[in-house]
Design goal:
The protein is an alpha+beta fold. The chain has a single domain, classed as Orthogonal Bundle (hpI Integrase, Chain A), CATH 1.10.443. Helices cover 40% and strands 12% of the residues. It has 4 helices and 3 strands; from the N terminus they run H-H-H-E-E-E-H. Strands 1-2-3 form a 3-stranded antiparallel sheet, with no helix packed on it. The radius of gyration is 13 Å and the shape is globular.
């Protein structure tokens, strides 16, 4: 199964499917770890000024800035217009681990 097949798999007719597709595309196009991607919020994104980029908060308190390709900019812009605030639904268990994407 190709990366493109996986990214295209979520149902684009539902808000959850659009969110899942944006998440998969984000992982594929930025090289972010799942933990970095689930920690992204709207303040970490620069989509409209100059060169689109995202601030990822990585392991060991290391932050890095990653460029965002145009196909991902479109997907994230659509996602942000669907729901404000956090880009990914971050449910937390009692141990602090992420329970959903």
């Amino acid at each position: 199964m190709s990366r493109y097949t996986i990214v295209a798999a979520p149902d684009q007719t539902t808000p959850r499917g659009r969110r899942d597709q944006a998440f998969l595309l984000f992982l594929a196009r930025t090289g972010a770890r799942v933990s970095e991607a689930t920690g992204v919020n709207a303040n970490d994104l620069q989509l409209e000024r100059g060169r689109p980029q995202v601030l990822l908060h990585g392991k060991g308190r290391r932050d890095r800035v990653v460029p965002i390709p145009q196909d991902l900019v479109r997907s994230l812009t659509d996602l942000l217009s669907d729901a404000a605030s956090p880009i990914m639904n971050r449910g937390r268990s009692s141990s602090g681990s992420t329970t959903s994407a």
